[in-house]
Design a protein that fits this description.
By secondary structure, this protein is an alpha+beta fold. The protein has helices spanning 5-13, 15-21, 24-44, 164-174, 206-212, 247-264, 290-299, 310-320, 336-340, 342-349, 363-369, 375-400, 410-426, and strands spanning 2-3, 51-56, 60-62, 67-75, 81-89, 95-96, 99-104, 109-116, 122-134, 140-146, 151-155, 188-194, 216-221, 227-233, 241-242, 245-246, 268-274, 278-283, 326-331, 354-360, 404-408. The protein folds into two domains: 1-155, Immunoglobulins (Immunoglobulin-like, Sandwich); 159-172 and 224-426, Rossmann fold. Helices cover 37% and strands 29% of the residues. The chain is elongated, with a radius of gyration of 33 Å.
């Protein structure tokens, strides 16, 4: 049962005769009368169980984009239904226009629209659909909350896709598909051409030479279908907020851009989100299905307040890769990584693979370094400088282990990782 504003207003009107008569009994009689009317009106209201509801939501939406869902209502009762309906969602779903007036004749149907503008990545869950049906007097009615479970999956924003066209142009230049021709050794057969002085005699194709009565050599291009393995660190350090989002979100952006670029290059990409266990993975998909599968896999990944298991990452990589590959570790570079086992993991991986370690820089640290206004700012600047020095020391140790190290601000990490990938490809290291 619920009461409407009319019941409150009617009860408040009892204060006028009570003030005139100066008798409390008048007030109590009035209030009891109003309560009785509200109870009778509530009993005369249609039963909410006669209302059937069904919610329909889209399968997914990208963060910062908008979408709509619908709630279908059917009056299965024999009486006219008049009241309201509320479509409940958790706040981060960004649901608006969730309250609707309900006026349905017997057997009537109506559809209501809910607008969504999510504010967080991941699975956004629905709450109950609440139906209120008023009595004939409009003083009170019956209410029921119906559990209709639904989930709206909010995919990563992928704001770094704006960097993809320029990197694809650079990739075409490396592959020799544009006007810029780059020389370099390769292992994938491309074509045959006539021998010229200076060519390696080991590239002579003797069968083609015999057929043409002229010396012919084979030309090669950089091998495609290489392997790229991306490991996202979802341990406690990935939960630290850098700017307006956790570190993990910047790592996801870098993963999406690098995957889009590598798949266009013909490489096969595998992705895992790992702390002490594997939280998500996307394996070996090629073609147009790569990005939707990856976005769906990473949408629900959240940081875990656990220490990373780097030996477990090494075992995972070794179990899934049977040939030399580029292994990208998206983590945090600081002094805690020395104790967590990152250095040992990189040392083990560089024996068989090309390893890249990428980390997000905190823009607030740069602001602290420039602070000189008072004693507090000076102490903060000193602490920031010490932190930067320790981070650079760890990065130097990683480079000594022959790892590629990339550090950048949150918005710059994805293009920086993509540029380093292209540099390795241009140098023939992939």
């Amino acid at each position: 049962m619920y009461i409407t504003g009319w019941t409150v207003l009617l009860a408040a009107l009892g204060a006028v005769p009570a003030a005139i008569a100066q008798d409390r009994s008048v007030t109590w009689v009035w209030l009891l009368g109003v309560a009785a009317l509200a109870l009778i009106d509530s009993g005369l209201a249609p039963k909410p169980s006669t209302i059937a509801v069904r919610r329909t939501v889209p399968g997914s939406v990208r963060l910062t984009e908008s979408t709509t869902g619908t709630v279908s209502v059917i009056n299965n009762g024999r009486r006219r239904a008049r009241g309201a309906l509320r479509d409940g969602w958790q706040p981060s779903a960004g649901a608006t226009n969730t309250r609707h007036k309900l006026k349905l004749p017997p057997g009537g149907r109506e559809r209501f629209t809910t607008h969504f503008h999510p504010t967080r990545r991941g699975d956004r869950h629905s709450d109950r659909i609440t139906v209120r049906l008023q009595g004939p007097l409009g003083l009170a009615g019956r209410q029921q909350s119906i559990l209709v479970p639904d989930t709206l999956r909010v995919l990563p924003e992928f704001a770094s896709r704006r960097h993809l066209p320029s990197r694809l142009q650079r990739l075409r230049e490396i592959d020799g598909q544009s006007a810029v021709q780059l020389k370099g050794a390769g292992s994938e057969f491309d074509s045959l051409r006539q021998y010229v002085i200076g060519d390696d005699v080991r590239s002579i194709d003797w069968r083609a030479t015999a057929r043409r009565a002229d010396v012919v050599v084979r030309t090669y291009r950089p091998e495609r279908d290489r392997r790229v393995f991306i490991a996202l660190d979802t341990s406690r350090l990935s939960a630290a907020r850098v700017g307006d989002a956790p570190r993990l979100d910047a790592s996801i952006e870098a993963t999406l851009l690098l995957t889009a670029l590598a798949t266009r290059a013909g490489d096969r990409v595998q992705v895992t989100a790992y702390d002490r266990t594997e939280r998500a993975r996307a394996l070996g998909t090629t073609g147009a299905g790569v990005m939707p599968q990856l976005a769906a896999a990473l949408a629900g990944v959240e940081p875990e307040l656990l220490e990373p298991d780097w030996p477990g990452v090494v075992r995972l990589v070794q179990g899934r890769l049977s040939q030399r590959a580029l292994v990208v570790l998206l983590t945090t570079i600081d002094t805690s990584t020395v104790d967590s086992g990152l250095l040992e993991a990189v040392a083990a991986l560089t024996q068989s693979h090309v390893v890249m370690v990428a980390s997000v820089d905190d823009p607030e640290v740069d602001q602290m370094l420039r602070g000189r206004d008072d004693v507090h700012d000076l102490y903060a600047a000193g602490a920031a400088a010490r932190g930067v020095l320790e981070r650079d020391t760890v990065a130097t140790r990683l480079r000594q282990l022959r790892a590629e190290v990339v550090t950048a601000a949150p918005d710059d990490l994805a293009p920086a990782v993509a540029d380093r990938y292209l540099a390795l490809k241009a140098a023939g290291r992939l």
